[in-house]
Amino acid sequence: MAREEHRTATSTRIRTAQTRTTEAPTRSQPATRAWTTRLVVLGIVLTALNLRPAITSLGALLEEVRDGLGMSGSVAGLLTSVPPLCFALFGVMAPRLARRFGPGAVVCAGMAAITAGLLLRPYVGSTAGFLAASALALMGIALSNVLMPVIVKHWFPDRVGSMTGLYSMALALGTASAAAVTVPMTEVLGGSWQTGLAVWAGLAALAVLPWIPFVRDRDRDQERERGRDQERERGRDGGAAPGFSAQEKHARVVAPTLRITRSRTAWALAVYFGLQATGAYITMGWMAQIFRDAGVHAGTAGLLLAVTMVMGVPLAFVIPRLATRLPHQGPIVLALGVCGLVGYAGLYLAPVAGSWAWALLLGVSNCSFPLALTLVGMRARTSAGVAQLSGFAQSTGYLISIPGPLLVGVLYQHSGGWGLPIALMAGLMIPQMAVGVLAGRNRTVEDEAAR
To answer: Per the confidence metrics, is the pTM higher than 0.70?
Structure first.
């Protein structure tokens, strides 16, 4: 009897130990997932903060850079056209790189490229070197631009609107901060434009850190994903990582290629993306100079540009959430376009007297960018579809936007004023509104491409 009780007690302890052993990973798994999700959110925010300072910091000091490097107005226009050119060339590579190395690893490399480019470009001493170092930084921005909607769709498929809003808010905050503080920070640091531009490399270096664990765990994660897909095909559900459905996991590994060019919505979204990017890069590159030529102090002109950019902070959170609740996003497109038309008219008629009002209105109009990002996530059903649509829309759109800033520089140099450039900016707003209404229709690129 005593032996039986001893055997019973022993077997009970063994079963209890086995139960604890099997339950321990289950209890630790939610904590690991929560930690990973928080790290992804931090990475998204820091990445977004670094996607525009390379451009708006240069816009605030464009006159000093032109004088320091001996640039003409046309060459300066070429400089303001480099961002969309790089975004078009390098953005198309992002989906393929993400399939091979993982989105987190590619974004990590992109942040490292931004850091190196921003650190090098002020000190190369020539226009060609400045352009080359800028292209390095812009390559990192291009890759991250395309992959941010993909990461949001993967990790937060049920919160595309709110997470796109958070990402867009951080992007607008980084854009506005660079425009607002670059000139005064340059003065504090001794007045050298080189130092004023190079200091932004520190923020980019900080954004590398959250993505490092995703580089290290890439191979192990991909092996787990392949195993889960094999189990699913055998009829045994192997589970999914946080934010991924089994269908999305399978789509990520197999990555079926859509004939994206058959989709009218994809083309409409690409043209809308291109026209809003044209207006945004003209604004970031030239608006401070427009105010300075009208007689506004350089520091105030930088603040006006910052006001235009900072409008995206609150609206970039509101607009994506509103867009996901509407069956058709056309009314938002039209409202943003009207604000742009009024802002350009005021900039032409009374650039100094109403400068703050025009800066506000143009800032509202520039919120077409978070709307375009939201449409990318809404117009495709799967993560693979979002990756293809994002790459196509952004690469094609940035190709469309290349001539705009360059043409503004040429018109400004040869006409001797801002009348023709402002007329060009206002004229481009009309087709932007038209294609935006088409892109806002409730349909998906998968359905259109299948037809």
So the answer is: no
